[in-house]
Amino acid sequence: MMLWLLPLVPILAGAIIATLGDRSRLSLGIMTVATLGTTLLLALLGVSQDWTATLVWTDVIRLSAAFVPVSAAVAIMVPTVALAVVFHATQNESKSGLARLIGLMILFTGGMELVVVANDLLTLLIGWELIGACSWALISHKWRKLDNPQSGLYAFVVTRTGDLGLFAALMALFTATGSFDYAGIQSLGGPLQWIVGFGILFSAASKAGQVPFSPWLFRAMAGPTSVSALLHAATLVAAGAYLVARLHPQLAEVPGFEATAIAIGLTTALAGGITGILQNHAKRLLAASTSAQLGFMFVAIGAGYPSIAVLHMIVHATFKAPLFLSAGIAGDAAGTYRLDRLRLGRELPVVAALTIIAIAGLAGLVGSGGGWSKEEIIKASEHTGFWLALTVMAGGALSAIYATRFQLLAYGRRDKDADSRATSAPGWVALIGIAALTMMTLTLSLLWFSPVAETAAAALDTTLPKGSTLVFGLSLLFVFTGIAIGVYLVRYHPALGATGPAAIASDWLGLPKLIDIVLVRPADAIAVAAARMDDRVVDRGIRGTAACGDWLARTAAKADDRVVDRGVRGTAVFGDWLARVGNRFGEAITDGIPEASARLTDMIGQDLRRLQTGLSHHYYAYIIGGVFAIFAILVVGA
Amino acid sequence: MLTLAILIPFIGAMTLAFMPKIERETARIIAVGTSSLSFLLLLVVWAQFDTGAGAPAFQALTEIEWIPSLGVAWRVGVDGMSLALSLMSGVLFIACTAWPMENPERPRAYYAWFLFLEAVSLGLFLVLDLLIFYVFFDLSLVGMFFLIGRWGHEGSQRAAFKFFIYTLAGSLAILLAIIGLVLSVDPITFDMRALIEAQPLAGMDLRGGLILLGFVVGFAIKAPLFPVHTWLPPAHVMAPGPASAILAGVLLKMGTYGLVRIPFQMMRETFADYALPLAIIALASIIWGAVVALGQTDMKRRIAYTSINHMGYTVMGIAAAGALLNGSEGAREMALTGAVVEMVAHGLITGALFLIAGGFWTRSKTYELDAFGGLANVAPRMTVAAVIAAFASLGLPGLAGFVAEVQIFVGTFAVFPWIAAIGLLGILITAALFLRLLQQVFFGDLPKAREGFPDVGLREGTVLAALLSLVILIGVYPRWLLDLIGSASSAMIGG
């Protein structure tokens, strides 16, 4: 049972902190360190002692949690990165609603831990949807501006669309095996196996911001920068790649699974790379890069190296989180996220220096952790085919281009005589989070020493792929070409993506527009039309009833002997009306309704006569009468 | 004990009705007190209820002869399903009587009708005699008719009238079906247990089909299912908040409960033959309810349509559970358990949502979504309650709706894979429609007219907190509820 503590502690603590109301930055910082520090300790303890947990709902439904090497590594990475990011948030995000923001971020981390330790699809789905809901709340954090909750809604609905895949997988797995355990997936065959495999892949692709779900990552940028950092590095988005990596042993046998994973990953890596290059918005550039980097992970998984994907995920977390935090600091300093208006090298020298360490990983430079894991992915894909390795290298070159653009545009130096800006450099406490993350990513450079890399691989219960020198050389060439192109773009096209066709293409190559036209608008139109159709029926009903009510009042006022007469006529009118309604409704929807309506008309008409006074004691009398009638029937029947 | 649980609110109602000069506060205290007392009795029954494998299906039985020649008697008793539903109703009645009156006129009569309705509702779930079941089924209309008509908003008479006529037509269909069913056993009996045992219509094709049709039409109107749902939205819009909560929380369950207790249990063969069409109607309700709800601009109508969607899930689970006589026991049991959990969960969640909507009327006299915005500025506690309730309604894990829906879908998939798969769209659309509602009402700019919008008070807050804690408890640790309900569904599927 101990393993439940790992998700439960941050979830409960987060919920409590979220409701605390205004607190000072210091006390929130202390609470964050205490909570997420405890979570990290629990993760370490749980991994070392191999904790497990189950929770019984019914005889057949039991939630379970356990570690495998892959999940152990991620379970430790998540609170580590979250600790730095959330602490950064306590010191840097705006004061209004800060406790709620911090609490929700901690809760979010707990939900992610639940996803990581889950050992069956139901437990997974619970964590999976929880982090989706947390992302809604976090993206909507500054709710006074309606744009933000709208973006939160977009993100939640897109990821929930993906969740349907998981629901489908869950249903199919249970139908086949009578349980939700991951272990059962291997034994599947036929269409059910296919549903499970592709349901999970669909779901993972939506969370990981792969094509065609990628646009939600842009909308998610409406949230505070710390949220983006957490979302992209350690939680929601990472969860997508984590899930496929975790279940790769069970899913590899599904026909077409690996090929589809490669296709999705590769498409996203290239499309995301191009989108990133064209972006003029600092956070969106990073968001596109996340899709692309997650695309690399999908490729690695499809190539049969899920552990390499997880290594890249960990390294990616340590360089992507500080980059987002850095973009946030730059955005705050300049009052805009427009890359062509930043160039804050002079104002923020420390941040610029920290950023360059992280950007090296994004660019995939030799010597950086990010460079190492990207090379490993290239090696892994070489085993599938040289063409795949080549395409991944091209994706790597795109990364180098947008990474270079980001660094030079955000932290390049402007001419001294340019108009001076009143920016205040953040104090050292505000930089602890980003510095800690940069240290982590710097430490991961050690992976270039093969003993360290071997140890990491051994911890994940895997071996590293072997690659040819030719491919390594080519890859270096691609990276340096990318950097050169990046420098060229910054020098000659600094405002790339600010206006014109590039700006239009930079919004995920038009994908959001397509989704809007093909899905969102028709869905809305259908809803409105359906509501109107339902209303027309209802409206008629109300009018008809009104007519009945009037008639009722009039009849009640008349003498008794005339009541019956009138009643009969009224019933006829009512019946007529109901038949018309039935007819109209029937034409609109189905053919079967008029018949049912006619039956109803008959019954209503008959009953109406009994009801015309509308007084309750009459009604009671009718019930008693009815009871006697039943008896009579029964007696006759007997 | 069960008889007492029905009698106490009835006595309370009579007291309020015939004792003049009872002040509003006193009336409220009497109402809350009697419904709590009745709930306590149900808790005692629950404490003594045996959910073990060998335990009898119906427990806490009492039988008093009434008309022996016709096999009519006052029979009460509970299984896991009816106990769970009556406990939920008990909670909801306490909540709704404790909730402040929306239209503070004639408090004595108002609370008297509430207690009357409670007696009738508990009676319906607790009796084991078909004739008395029918009487309670009809009496529930009377109670609701007056609550909507007399304490509703302007024009509520018409809505009440429509509600009454429509559902009365349904209950007439049920009456005919009951007569048909009862006449096919020899000797005649209205004892539900005997009828379940006898399966009187096994092997009768046409007659069985017609009787089933009668039940399905009647219960579908009450549930309500597409396309006989159109009485529901106006009734909800016009009803005062607490009456809406009871209408959605308790009265709609009578339809689905009846569907399980009578056609599902008493005519298994016929039900299995027609399970697929029923599942298709349920699917239509799921999708139609969700899509139409998305198109609504009135908060209460939107919630009302989601009820149609949720009752669709319930009936889908029931249809799947009854679709086969043998095979897939595990999945069918899960579908049925899920359907009953959905009834309980929907009662609590939608009850809370309608109470919140009622709070909006009390404060602003409108339900138009456009009339609100940015309320999180002035009513943070209400925002939190609405967010939890909305997420529960859209089936977020960790809240009660998920426990129900996941079981319904998983169970249904084994029997009707395509229907379950298409039905998943429902949970996507409800997600969109609830988030839009929250966004429109609570976020963005606060309109000038709403600057004085009061947050939930102590009494409202306590009621909502109690309902929503139950929703969370069921969502996180549902075992106590699933044990109770599971004992009934395994008996129904296994037997």
Summarize the biggest pleated sheet of chain A.
2 strands, antiparallel
Termini separation of chain A comes to 63 Å
Whole-number total of structural domains of chain B:
1
Radius of gyration of chain A: 31 Å
The largest β sheet of chain B comes out as: 2 strands, antiparallel
Which series of helices and strands of chain A comes N to C? HHEEHHHHHHHHHHHHHHHHHHHHHH
Strand order of the largest sheet of chain B: 1-2
Order of helices and strands of chain B: HHEEHHHHHHHHHHHHHHHHH
What global shape of chain B is seen? globular
Fraction of residues in β-strands of chain B: under 5%
Structure class of chain B: mainly alpha
Largest interface: A-B, 79 and 80 residues
Low-confidence stretches of chain B: none
GO molecular function, one term (chain A): NADH dehydrogenase (ubiquinone) activity
Subcellular location (chain A): Membrane
Membrane topology (chain A): Multi-pass membrane protein
Organism (chain A): marine sediment metagenome
Quick summary:
The complex is a heterodimer of chains A (638) and B (495). Chain A is mostly helical and 638 residues long.
Report on the architecture of this protein.
- The complex is a heterodimer of chains A (638) and B (495).
- The longest helix of chain A is centred in the C-terminal third of the chain and has 47 residues, at 511-557.
- With 638 residues, chain A is mainly α.
- The radius of gyration of chain A is 31 Å and the shape is globular.
- The relative contact order of chain A is 0.07.
- Chain A is 75% helix and 1% strand.
- By secondary structure, chain B is mainly alpha-helical.
- Chain B is built from 19 helices and 2 strands.
- In chain B, α3 (80-98) runs antiparallel to α4 and α4 (107-126) packs antiparallel against α5 (130-151).
- The relative contact order of chain B is 0.11.
